[in-house]
Automatic annotation (TrEMBL):
One of its GO terms (molecular function) is sequence-specific DNA binding. Belongs to the transposase 8 family. Pfam families: HTH_Tnp_1 (PF01527). GO terms for biological process: DNA transposition. Residues 1-13 have a biased composition (Polar residues). This is Transposase. It comes from the Bacteria. Residues 1-29 are annotated as: Disordered.
Length: 143
């Protein structure tokens, strides 16, 4: 049977051409947002009056992430981090120690005093503690 005049005959032109491969999408690294950025985005979403979905799209983030940040914001977890105070080493001259001698009545006996700084460092004093020195230290370390 001759199929050259057949309606259903397709000539053999060789192998099918391969479809063009799409270029691979570049791998995006996970974005990291600082506490200040998170707080700014949440405050913008709350102030705009838009839905959180619209606010999330405006900042190119997932809506669920914005809801999570809002919860952290309401719990006070997105407050600015206080900088740790800078401590300066001091030394007493020999004359200064003698000048403190008359004020020894202000010293109180304490077995142990421990101050935990915001950066995690601990200041531990064992023995006599001068109330004025302690007060001054706490005033300098408080935010």
């Amino acid at each position: 049977m001759d199929t050259s005049n057949s309606l259903y005959h397709t000539p053999n032109t060789g192998p099918e051409p391969e479809p063009e491969a799409e270029p691979a999408k570049p791998v995006q690294k996970r974005r990291r947002f600082s506490i200040e950025q998170k707080r700014h985005i949440v405050e913008d979403a709350l102030a705009s009056g838009d839905s959180f979905s619209i606010a999330a799209r405006r900042h190119n983030i997932n809506t669920n992430l914005l809801f999570k940040w809002r919860q952290q914001y309401e719990q006070g977890q997105l407050e600015p981090v206080a900088e740790a105070p800078n401590l300066v080493p001091i030394t007493l001259a020999s004359g200064d120690a003698e000048a403190l001698a008359p004020h020894q009545d202000r010293f109180r006996r304490s077995a142990r005093l421990e101050i935990v700084l915001p950066n995690g460092h601990r200041l531990t004093v064992i023995g006599n503690v001068c109330a004025d020195a302690l007060r001054t230290t706490l005033e300098c370390l408080s935010p």
